Amino acid sequence: MSGLEKYWYIACRADDLRQRPRASRILGRRLVLFRDTGGRAVALEDRCLHRGAPLSQGRVCAGELECPYHGWRYDGDGALRAIPALAELPPLDRAHLARFPCVEQDGYVWVCLDPDPARVAPTPFANLDQPGWTSFRMYTRFEASVTACLENFLDCPHATWVHRHWFRTPTGKPVRAVVRTRDDGAEAEYFEEPREKSAVWWLLSPSRSEMKHTDRFIAPNTSKVDYAFSNRRHYTITSSCTPVTDTLTDVYTVISFRFPVFGPLVRLFFTPLSRRIIQQDVDILDATQANNGAHDRQAMLVTPADLLVPHILAWRRALEDITAPPPAGRETEVELRL
Fold first, then answer.
1. Which residues pair with 299 in a beta bridge?
2. 124 phi and psi, to 5 degrees?
3. Which of 99, 130, 147, 215 has its CA 20 to 30 A from that of 297?
4. What is the pLDDT at residue 276?
């Protein structure tokens, strides 16, 4: 068993879990989600004990899950409750579906594949529903691994090429970056970044304002990008990655920004712009995965410009193997050209 199974992953939005069951897949495991008699979110193995039919294609009846094949019913604990073809339940060994820890937080349903989660609660989304902040959500499926997604979200150099003019434009200017290891991952802070010819910077803050930019990796599956400006404007993008398979990832993103007075109006422009930028990431990651095929990513070159990549790889390898993660408290400095 992989140690990554001990962490929380988003299975769906809470609002999407209503009267019908919902299928989900995490780390290759097929799950079915529904609400039990108490309205609580439940995650069970998506496989009927009778013939193995997908329960997610059935229906929810009075808080119980009904199989579409022969109508077998299961309660929120995964216990078999009825076989319509029989007047009474016979004594059956192993008549119980696997049930997984499940919680609702930040408007999402989170599932852990291990009965003993490594953390009591999932990593929260930054600044969501806070006074003075405007937030919106996005869901994106990437043909890429969780590691590849995290590397992309926390990588400044790619933005000057993939998001040219939208987010960054190549200037060749030197930028100082400081990388710090933390007890839950690592972060990179950037100093004196260029902001010329960028639609995002034109909207968020004029070049005369000071900017603090920090990229943070929170193990094992969360990225947080934070831009704080001296004119009190603030922008945060938090992404939680759910590994569907080794090469398929569902990414749930919350973008929150503080834009005094005009926040809701800015959202009208900022939402489609953000979707455009993320679609560019989808396109390049999909193309990269298709081009790499079965090639070993571990053999690929990592340079000093890939600031957080070594930390992402080391942390995820340690958690998967259930070994000690990298130590916190270390700091290194790198000069980039952006």
1. none
2. -75, 160
3. 215
4. 84
